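Blinded run. Sample ID left blank on purpose so nobody reads anything into the name before looking at the predicted structure. Input follows.
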Amino acid sequence: MPRKKIDLSTSGKGSLIDMKTGKPVETPVLPIICERIRHYRERQGIEQKELARRLGITPNSISNWENGRSRPDVNLLPGICEALHITFYDLFNKKDPTARFTARQQRLIEQYSGLSSGHQRVVDNLIDTLIKIEAAESCPDLEILTYYSRQLAAGIASPDEFDDEGEAVYVYSSPEVRRADCIFTVNGNSMEPNFHSGQDVLVQRIPDGPELNYGEIGAFIIGNETYIKVYKEDGLHSLNHRYKTMHFNEDESVYLIGRVLGIFDKSQYAKPEDIEKYELVHGKD
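Blinded prediction complete.
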């Protein structure tokens, strides 16, 4: 029988030839795990012998894995990942659903870890500076007001003691907000229909602002409670006509907190992320 001629013209360099057909055959594809072990070992600059030493196996085992002749025992997988500083997802070339960083970001972290402590501090300072610059560029315009959420305790002898109450709150700036000093919540329906119970109102403190004129709405301390009323010559009036005018004599304690500027929309309280930006740029008050 004549010898079968093998056509080499169609075979690429290094191709395998099927001796029965004389045709080139595709090079066997290495399993993913074999390719990844070689990839990460070389990226870490680790020799096969060193990886074998870390895993407590022979160098031939590593060679066999990387050439696809065998695969690592499943019990060795955690050790392989630890030795190569990778995850199971890296080893099997799968996307980690919990990953926080892109490949580029992860590479930067690895490079940062390799820097000296002094150079790491330089990078830290640079990042802090860039964060502040970006925060300043997107920093919202906020104002800090005092929010009073509860009635005053009995026994107040001076309106100056009122300054010890309340908490600082961040709000988005506006012309009306910039005139205000504090915020109160309306309690009751004596000022309907203009002010409803539960609404917040902006108040300009007096004597910080101009004195209150007749016909203007003010916030007052009467006894141990706060009121929002219309200031008139004969007393304090409610907008709701079902409520009587509050009259006072010289012996009664009535203190003016300030002028009510208007209703404050609760959506204008600053969001936490905007407060964080503001404090990063301006510092905490």
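Unblinding after everyone has recorded impressions. The beta strands are 16-17, 24-25, 142-148, 167-172, 182-185, 200-205, 217-222, 225-232, 235-237, 254-264.
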